[in-house]
Amino acid sequence: MLSLTTQDVKMGQTLADKQAVISALAEWLEQDGNVAAGYADGMLAREAQTATYLGQGIAIPHGTQECRHLVKQTGIKALHLPDGVDWGDGEKAYLVLGIAAGSDEHLELLRRLARALSRDDLAEQVRRAESRQDILRLLQGEEESSQAPVLGWRREWMRTGVEATSLAALQRAACELLNADDTERQALQASSLHLGQGWWLSQAPASGEPRAALVTTTGFEHSGQPVRALLALAVNGNGHRPLLAQLADWLLADKGQALAAMADSTALHTALARGPHAPGEDGLADNQRLVVVRNHQGLHARPGAMMVQIAKQFEADIRVRNLDGDGHDVNGKSLMKLIGLGVRPGHQLLLTAEGPDAAAALEQLVTAINEGLGEDVMPVAAGPTLVHQVQDIAPDTEMRGVGASPGTAIGPLFVEVPVHFDYPDTACDAGAEQRRLKAALAQADTDLAAAAEATHEPQARDILSMHRELLGDPALAEGAQARLQRGASAPAAWWSEIDSAATRQAASPNAMLAERAADIRDIGRRVMAILCDTPLPQTPNAPYIWVAEDIGPSDVVNMNAELVLGLVTAGGGPSSHSAILARSLGIPALVAMGGAVMGLKSGTQAILNGDAGTLHVAPTNRVLEQAKARQAQERQLAEQAWEHRNQAAVTTDGHRLEVGANLGDTAKTAAAVESGAEGVGLLRTEFVFMGRSQAPDLAQQQAEYDKAFTVLNGRPLVARTLDVGGDKPLPYWPVPKEDNPFLGVRGIRLCMQQPELLETQLRALLTAAGDRPLRIMFPMVADWSEWRFAKEMFERVQAEVQAADVQLGIMVEVPSAALNAQLFAQDADFFSIGTNDLTQYTLAADRGNGELAALSDGLHPAVLRLIAMTVEAAHAQGKWVGVCGELGADPQALPLLLGLGVDEVSVSPGRVPLVKARVRECSLARCKDLAAKALRARDAQTVRALTGEIQ
Ligand code: PEP
Ligand code: MG
């Protein structure tokens, strides 16, 4: 997210005009590496479309969509202009914020600014500001931040028709929706107040974020009073007052009973937002109109400014409410208030006008909003999923992301866009709708059964049969049935039921169960596709580059690798497990491309460059030819490397590096040996434990490991003991939902909670090894006690099994293990550095978070220092060090790892020949010089630039 620091503000500037201000800002952004040359033209072009004056003396120039490719790194720079600069329409800007944003990060900044701008005297305060701190303080909107945030109604916190016969049961249902903790639960159950007309209130202090749940029921009595609905509030401060005021409106209008009888949470949510006085068929008063915003980025500054201009032409007082936001009204003639509504594509606005020309004002506003307020609009998203508008990308556009798997892919895109379903909310014939739903459910079940029959993949078969199980769950059918009886159409009833079941599931404190929410939505969509006669996207049967919001490890496992030329995701990070899988399959991949990639048209020709991190869309013939030449060269290099794959990796000055293979499955051992791997440097043993309904027993594990030893034929096997938790849960080992799973109970920490599981694994490994070379290492060791626990268990088992050739090591992937390497080196036989996690924990950057992809670079000098410390400590004790993280396969990193003294690297089998070839190009002496320089560098970028010097 964009944010401003004091470094980004220059005070007391004097510049002649708007153009000079924009040029100065663009130049500054360019100097700081945020944009490439030419961005100033884009900013001026945006200005020509609409002035970026926000209000209160503040302007926010930023580039047009077309110049986004010039943005290298999002950033913001501010110039304070106490004399003011004319920003058009007679407005003077005293503070100008120049924004470089590759996607729509600036919208959040605008929202925050909008809050600050609600201060009436802000322009004057900004003009008179004396320091950079003053500016930051003013922009933070201090006055508002001291108040509790306004709490809004949320559909997912509403549930209608709950079967309950006591107030306590209703409170329990509300607590479940709120995901209340024990303290909140107790306080909510101890509080009950009858507001009237069967509406009850339970209120408790919130332990975390404030939340408000609404549950309605068919009716019973409590203490002689009717119970029809309960509002449960977990709140602090007074941010919930607007909610109480809206509910009070209904009770004062004597319509509490009608409100409690609303058919479903959508109806209840809309009714509360519209208020009790909305007559007419569409539920609106004469002076109200409802309109859906269909701009790609919602109501941001530019369309917002146009809306304000229209509103200002009328005398009528115009109020605007975002029915999908927090439900409060704002003045339709204030740009900052409008932006503060946080209107996203598909959100509904309720416009209310009062005054002599109210009708004309509404008419004109609705027409203008429907026409996009000067922008292109996308179709209305009336279905359960968001629609991505296909953009007409200019030919020859290069989009930038983060390379996650090297290589070039050329081919048509297949953009896996979430499907949009169109359907009426209500129907007159409940019986007919019920039959429709029943038929659709039966059809979906038949389809699932056929798919399970057709697949040869056991994991896929398990998932499909679990989906059949879910589909037949009577609770879903009953929930949908109740909605049909209340007049909902079959798709509306089915989707509302799916939506609330998935929401409840996602709130489960058990991480594994919470993950089932995705499966519920999956079967939900399958049935919706039948009901709405809208086919779900079919993957092409000719080779393609797959573009998706995110691709999970299971998608990669299940995809047809023959057809997928490359992978591109809007989110994700380079060391997320799906990226690792892509690398292991040798498929070029890009991650963290941003949402814009989802707007690309399927079938468009593109070039994916996994090394440069770019996607070139609709390239010119010249660019295409260049890419084909590069691809041919890559193939040639790969072929040469393949030819020499069985030779050792020796530098030009005679130093040998061992190259092993990383395996996530023993079935790939033969492929690893075939690629020239000198052993398995990392066996991720999780695979033995995954895809099962219970933990594998000793014999099953032993058989798996034995397969690898047999194929390795005397080469060493480095097995990492079970590393689950974090982003890798196990179905039969429920791990409580954690706020920070990567900092939670994972790896060795989890094994310490079930020692018998680790003991069985050690026994299976040692027994399978016999007299063959086995290296065992433990993941996520952060503390001496963990290592001692693991080592003592190992010694106990080894005393019984007596395997002949075993070493015991530590995975260095937590900074504390590297910092204490001297201590560990006295006791362990070897270290293997897990650079994926080591980078994540050193830089506090989630390895799966695309936003942080550039930061989480294993070539950061801080990570290199930890590697150097580890190697030094190990070598002082005569122990060896490997690198099994993804850094080992990075051609730029390899000379540095050599120079730092690493003895072995382990990479995905497909990369083994290339890594060996790269080592043969290097001289150890030069690598050592390079490493010394890199350790003194200030950041990863500088280190990468240094590596270019060693060729
Ligand atoms: C690592 O963290 O670098 C590593 C090899 O382990 P994993 O990627 O399986 O967490
Ligand atoms: Mg790891």
UniProtKB/TrEMBL annotation:
| Any single GO BP term | phosphoenolpyruvate-dependent sugar phosphotransferase system
| Subcellular compartments | Cytoplasm
Q: Which GO terms describe its cellular component?
A: cytoplasm
Instruction: Enumerate the UniProt keywords alphabetically.
Output: Cytoplasm, Kinase, Magnesium, Metal-binding, Phosphoprotein, Phosphotransferase system, Pyruvate, Sugar transport, Transferase, Transport
Q: Which cofactor does it need?
A: Mg(2+)
- The PTS EIIA type-2 domain covers which part of the protein? 2-142
Give the EC number(s) listed in the UniProt record.
2.7.3.9
Using the UniProt record, give the first listed, main subcellular location: cytoplasm
Q: Which InterPro entries match?
A: HPr-like (IPR000032), HPr-like_sf (IPR035895), PEP-util_enz_mobile_dom (IPR008279), PEP-utilizing_PTS_enzyme (IPR050499), PEP_util_AS (IPR018274), PEP_util_C (IPR000121), PEP_util_CS (IPR023151), Phosphohistidine_dom_sf (IPR036637)
One of the Pfam families matching this protein, by short name: PEP-utilizers
Which residue range or ranges hold the HPr domain?
Answer: 286-376
Q: Which reaction does it catalyse?
A: L-histidyl-[protein] + phosphoenolpyruvate = N(pros)-phospho-L-histidyl-[protein] + pyruvate
The organism sits in which domain of life?
Bacteria
Alphabetically, the GO molecular function entries are: kinase activity; metal ion binding; phosphoenolpyruvate-protein phosphotransferase activity
The entry assigns this protein to a family as follows: Belongs to the PEP-utilizing enzyme family.
Q: Write the protein's name.
A: phosphoenolpyruvate--protein phosphotransferase
Organism of origin = Oceanimonas doudoroffii
